[in-house]
Structure formats: C-alpha cells, structure tokens
Design goal:
CATH superfamily of the largest domain: Winged helix-like DNA-binding domain superfamily/Winged helix DNA-binding domain
Structural class: mainly alpha
CATH architecture of the largest domain: Orthogonal Bundle
CATH class of the largest domain: Mainly Alpha
Shape: globular
Largest sheet: 2 strands, antiparallel
Oligomer: single chain
Number of helices: 7
Radius of gyration: 18 Å
Number of domains: 2
C-alpha cells in the first residue's frame, strides 16, 4: 500500500497537468483522477509486477479519459494530443534493472503455459477474462494459473538473478543474467 501511495504522490500532479488541456470541462479532471486512482488500487500487489509504473499510470489515465469521452457522446470532440504521452524517464530503481536484465532469461526458462499467461496478461495487458475466453478456460482457472505462474516466476528470478529483498520485502539488489544461448 505504501508503494501505491508513493507512486501516486510522485505522479498525480504530472497526470493532472497532462489531463487539463485534454478535458473539455476542467472540473472533470478530479473525477478522472479519482477513477484512475481506484483502478490503481484494484491492481493491489499486481502493481509491483508493472515494469514502468509511470508509463502504466499515463496509459490508464489516457484510457480512462477516452472511456469517459466516449460515454459522453453529447458532442464533446476528442481533444488534440490524446495520443501524446510523455517520454519515458530513466529510473534507477532496482526493479527496473531487474526487469530488463533478468526477465527475458526467466521467461525463456518457464514452462510454456506459465510463460503464455504471464506474457499475455501481465506484460501485454490482456484481461484474464479474455485469456480465459481465448483458451476456453474458466475465469477461476485462469486466475489460479496466473497466480501459480507468478509464484514460479518469482522463485526462478530469485534464484537465477540472485535477487535480495529489503526488510519491507521489496527488491533491494540482484545480479544481472543474460538469457542462455
């Protein structure tokens, strides 16, 4: 929860500045930010698996704005520049380096079923319901499969990349590993 609050605190002002010129009624900005915050809250622990939280926040904000504008269909034109997201900011957070240095190797070593559900649902943003529909599985089966796959991936990353954690359970350090040849 502290990570979520910290993430939100760091980026709320930036999200607000991005929304202001794009929202036809300025008083709607707070409503949209509230919707975004609720979506972020719903991510819970899955938020820690997001590779670029800032970029993800902007994507959620843009999608929330687009959904709101579409629902309003009372003549509000879509604002210019809706597709212009800010450039990515280099981060020195250990989790960013871990994702870049270890994730490809660990994914290549996972069971194909684990790799499939993680790549589609966690990395490409497919909903679990859509994954279930495409694979002709029940939603509870997909939720269980994803949970087990995440656990195995974490265990594999911990050993393959020698991940160490701080007292709060957050990534503290790791040893980069390249994918096997």
């Amino acid at each position: 929860m502290n990570d979520l609050i910290s993430l939100w605190t760091r980026h709320e002002t930036e999200l607000r500045r991005w929304l202001m010129p794009r929202v036809p009624v300025p008083s709607e900005v707070d409503d949209i930010l509230q919707d975004v915050f609720i979506k972020v809250l719903r991510q819970g622990k899955a938020l820690s698996a997001v590779d670029q939280p800032r970029a993800w926040l902007f994507e959620v904000t843009r999608n929330t704005l687009t959904d709101r504008l579409r629902a309003r269909r009372d003549g509000w034109p879509l604002p210019d520049g809706l597709d212009e997201l800010p450039d990515a900011v280099e981060s020195e957070h250990p989790l960013d380096g871990l994702a870049q240095a270890c994730l490809p190797r660990v994914l290549s070593e996972l069971d194909p079923q684990d790799r499939d559900v993680i790549e589609l649902c966690d990395l490409q943003g497919m909903t679990q319901a859509e994954f279930a529909r495409q694979r002709q599985l029940s939603l509870p089966a997909v939720k269980s499969r994803l949970q087990r796959a995440r656990k195995r991936m974490r265990e594999r990353m911990t050993s393959a990349c020698r991940v160490s954690f701080d007292s709060g359970g957050r990534v503290d350090d790791f040893v980069p590993r390249t994918p096997p040849s």
